[in-house]
Amino acid sequence: MSGNEELAEAAKAAANKEFAAKRYEAAIAGYTEAIKLNDQVPAYFSNRAICYIRTEAFGYAIADANRAIELDARFVKAYYRRASANMALGKFKVALKDFKAVTKVVPNDRDAALKLKECQKIVKVQAFEKAIEGDYSTRSVADDLHLETMVVADSYKGPRMDDDLQVTEEFVLAMIEHFRGEKQIAAKYAYAIVLKTKETVIALPSLVDITIPADTNKFTVCGDVHGQFYDLLNIFHLNGMPSPANPYLFNGDFVDRGSFSMEVILTLFAFKCLYPESFHLNRGNHETTNMNKMYGFDGEATHKFSKNLCELFHETFRALPIASCIDEKVLCLHGGLFSSDDVTLDDIRKVDRIREPPDSGIMCEALWSDPQPEMGRSPSKRGVGVQFGPDVTEAFLRRNNLELIVRSHEVKENGYVEMHNGKCITVFSAPNYCLSEEMEVLS
């Protein structure tokens, strides 16, 4: 073994330790160093690919898996990594081909067999949905719901709504305490919250203009929460409960990954019902059906309530706005800016958002794009959206008479980061998601 090969193996071993500790960025740096020293080892690329998957850089993961396969067409893990990344991007038919290849070589691999089965199921469901969408695309779960006939059992010990099913402050605070004890509310009340939220947000434009009230000097923007209910409670503990005097904007990715997505989303939706003019919600890339199937929300919603309620959540997610503009100066959106230089706020307002996001265009990029330190634009590390530099940010702000971009979408170990000369701020608000003691909200 040559000197470089020994150093590469040492770099890989150090990266493996970082990966085991879930320090994925450090692991990526380690595997990258190993590749610089010896770029002929498929395992280095495959290992870096799984780190990219964990950080949702699916485009980079696919590129690394492809390189590993080029080096060794029999390297099974690379096919598995590529399939996992494509599945995360909703490219289920492409993923299915690789999962089949993996299970053919290692038929006793339980994880691969489960992924193959899951992928086959999704492909079949999508084919069925496509076949019937002409008849049912305008139908809603709400069409067959009759809340007045739903019964709350006498044995139910949680908070109760009045007969008119209005969301009150008393109910919301009691619900939060009920959730704190890891208990669920009655299905009737969950349906009432989601239905009212859908009715509220579907009436909003794709870009919501927010004016901070003159009698308050505070407005809080929160980033990804990702099902971390106790982190959400800590935000409210540190920063105060939402109210007309303490307005909030949650900037997408409320669900998936964490174990308490249902508690998080019902709490956020309940506050939206309670304070529709001072509690705001932007859609994230995880408020989409494909991501919910992949990253846990569908399973949690079905387990805690039902498939029917899960589908009603999907309908409501599709109705969420994709951006907000605060005091005509600060644009908040989950992902970032666009592949075209001429996008205006009016273009965002005109987006037909009440659907699943397409693979390109303004809606897709608003949910998926990321900033980069380099000038110009680059292909997205995620395989969706675009990466944009400080010159792109500056030009967009100047064209739209804005001062600042606030976005989320990326794990930041210190909770936030400023880029592009302080004109593009990323906020991430789920410390337990990123294994950090820091949590950030932007006031």
Q: Helix tally?
A: 17
Q: Strand fraction band?
A: 5-15%
- Radius of gyration in whole Å, from Cα? 23 Å
Largest sheet: 6 strands, mixed
Which outline best applies? globular
Number of strands: 13
User: What do the pLDDT scores average to?
Assistant: 93
Q: Determine the fraction of residues in helical runs and give it as a percent range.
A: 40-55%
- Separation of the first and last Cα atoms: 55 Å
Major beta sheet, strand line-up: 1-5-6-10-12-11
Summary, kept brief:
It is built from 17 helices and 13 strands. It has 443 residues and is α/β, with parallel strands linked by helices.
Defining key terms:
4-stranded mixed β-sheet, 6-stranded mixed β-sheet, 443 residues, 9% strand, alpha/beta, 17 helices
Mind explaining what this structure looks like?
49% of the residues lie in helices and 9% in strands. Mean pLDDT is 93; it is low at 434-441. The strands form 3 sheets. A 6-stranded mixed beta sheet has the order 1-5-6-10-12-11. It has a 4-stranded mixed beta sheet with strand order 4-3-2-13, covered by helices on one side. A 3-stranded mixed beta sheet has the order 7-9-8. It contains 17 helices and 13 strands. The chain has 443 residues and is an alpha/beta fold.
Topology:
Elements: H1 3-20, H2 24-37, H3 42-54, H4 58-71, H5 76-88, H6 92-105, H7 110-136, H8 169-180, H9 187-201, E1 207-210, E2 220-222, H10 229-239, E3 248-250, H11 261-274, E4 279-281, H12 289-295, H13 297-304, H14 307-319, E5 323-326, E6 330-332, H15 345-349, H16 362-368, E7 370-371, E8 377-379, E9 386-388, H17 390-399, E10 404-407, E11 416-419, E12 424-427, E13 441-442
Parallel strand pairs: 1-5, 2-3, 3-4, 6-10, 7-9, 10-12
Antiparallel strand pairs: 2-13, 5-6, 8-9, 11-12
